[in-house]
Amino acid sequence: MPGRKANSSTVICDSSADIAEMAAISPSHAAARAFSSNAWLGMSETHMGVSSVVKTALLSGLIGWGRARRMLLLGETIGAREALEWGLLEKVVEREELDDAVAG
Questions:
Q1: Three-state SS for 90?
Q2: Bridge-based pairing state of the strands 40-42 and 32-36
Q3: What integer best gives the mean pLDDT of the chain?
Q4: Which CATH superfamily is domain 4-103 in?
């Protein structure tokens, strides 16, 4: 996705991301997950009528079944601040500060 970089220890995003992919990159796998304040997360698979059983199970483990159902059944998206509150992200900063936030 545009504006998204990932490696084995860091995920940074300044536009959008698939929340199921974020679930697959759990806290034990990513040392830092930082998004800009204007980024959003959603289940892109939901809008296509397809979903991953594995990613769905991981997502519900991270954010709970109630929140996961909203994402899976209704196709809701959430902003970076809400994702931070839910524990999916570790940092939310302004776009200009994103690289610095991850670097140090």
A1: coil
A2: unpaired
A3: 72
A4: 2-enoyl-CoA Hydratase; Chain A, domain 1 (3.90.226.10)
**What are the sequence ranges of the domains in the chain?**
4-103
pTM listed for this prediction: 0.67
3-state SS record for 15-61: CEEEHHHHHHCCCCCCCEEEEECCCEEECHHHHHCCCCHHHHHHHHH
pLDDT value at residue 85: 92
User: H or E stretch including 91?
Assistant: strand 91-93
Token pair listed for 25 = 């990159």
In DSSP terms, 52 is beta-bridged to none
Place of tokens 């990613």: 55
Q: Regarding predicted confidence, which is higher, 67 or 31?
A: 67
The answer to whether 30 and 36 are in contact (CB under 8 A) is: no
In this predicted model, what pLDDT tens digit does every residue of 18-34 receive, in sequence order? 555 555 554 544 445 67
Mean pLDDT of the 54-63 span: 82
